[in-house]
Amino acid sequence: MPLPKPLATVASLRWRRLFRSRDQQGDGGRSQRERQGEQRLLKSVYGSEADGIDSFFVVTNIIMTENQIQGVCPEFPIAKAVCSTDRSCMEGRMDPQSNGIQTGKCVKYNTTLKTCEVKAWCPVESIKSAPVPATLRSAENFTVLIKNNIHFPKFNYTTRNISPEFNISCTYNKRMAAYCPIFRLGDILQLAGENFSEVAVQGGIIGIEINWDCILDKWLHRCRPTYGFRRLDDKKTNEALYPGYNFRYARYYKQANGKEERTLIKAYGIRFDILVFGTAGQFDFFELLVYIGSALSYFGLHSDKVRSPGNSQELQSLQNKGVTSSSHERPSWCSCGKCRPAQSYWEQLCCRKKDGACITASALFEQLVISRPMLELVLLYKDPLLDLKAETLNKQLRHCAYEQYIHWRFGEDDLKERAMIPSCCRWKIRDAFPSERGEYSGFKRTK
Ligand SMILES: [Zn+2]
Ligand SMILES: [Zn+2]
Description:
Elements: E1 5-13, H1 15-25, H2 32-46, E2 55-74, E3 101-108, E4 114-122, E5 143-152, E6 157-160, E7 182-184, H3 185-191, H4 196-202, E8 204-215, E9 225-231, E10 246-254, E11 260-281, H5 285-307, H6 312-320, H7 363-370, H8 372-382, H9 393-410, H10 423-432
Parallel strand pairs: 8-11
Antiparallel strand pairs: 1-5, 2-4, 2-11, 3-4, 5-6, 5-7, 8-9, 10-11
Helix pairs in contact: 7-9, 8-9, 9-10
Bound molecules: zinc ion (2 copies).
């Protein structure tokens, strides 16, 4: 089974809905400046989806430290930086958790605490843990449109997850709209077994799986994706191991006096990774039929065992009535009582999986498959000048009956050369239009 090559996967968040949902939520007294900052932030971070990579990031929580300038200031009171005298601090010391390089002085952080002074962007970030509830938890109502094109090289087949009859106003729903490529972020989290507003605080990574399971045969074409969702990061990691998903970045500005100023942003958010899986296949129809045939043989054997002593009376009465043909012994793989023994295993096919009446006893079989006037009509339709008294007519009627059966049961002329007719039906047709010498070519394997 060859793997599909994802040609392109593009996720685009919907802006309009994004801002509408923010308006609905109401910003609850946040400052104009804060709001502007957020919108700037949203634009910059959402903008990254333009890179065309198979993941997108949605900011759900932020810590913003504005107006930082380069200078000296007290370090944030992490354990290593708390001091009482200059002796606790060391000039030039640097720690991965600290914000800058120590100057060697111990200074006042607030009214109760002293920390080592650092050369850094000052003032340093003053909040340690992510705000609860998450600042941008309304991102739950954002939607994302995922476009995924795939190609199966072996079959030279290309398709995409957006069907021509795609309705732009749909929203994915596992039961009601399983093919809709627009997903509400809150729904994605829910389907992954998570709660959006909880994950929004610390951030996380969610996988969106697009599974392509395709059958590329003309007669049974099926190639549409199913979607799956799961959390990829480990939410159980303890606090010390930095749970969730976040990163810092800064925006730099120049003040009138030429001094550099920056706004530091610690962004928590959910990264959505799009993972594409898939298989495609074309059944070799013959193989499929062999499979069905052998499966049926197995059923036949199975019911044979059940039948043996207890039901012998029933069998006997049937024989007494002359229902089963006395000249042909019932093969073990037959469940309808009308099949005849066959040498080749692919001809050991019954019309039934379980015991019951034979399809040849049905009224439709009579009308569609072996009714002579019907078959003559079909033959004349194909060849209006056909001589209905020709010696070869039986053979033509017989083959026409096989085709009628296939067309009736399989519905496709494509399968004419490949479909296997059950033994009972084959013999019913042969008996109705026998060959003069009693010889039949049997099923010709096309491979
Ligand atoms: Zn049978
Ligand atoms: Zn049958």
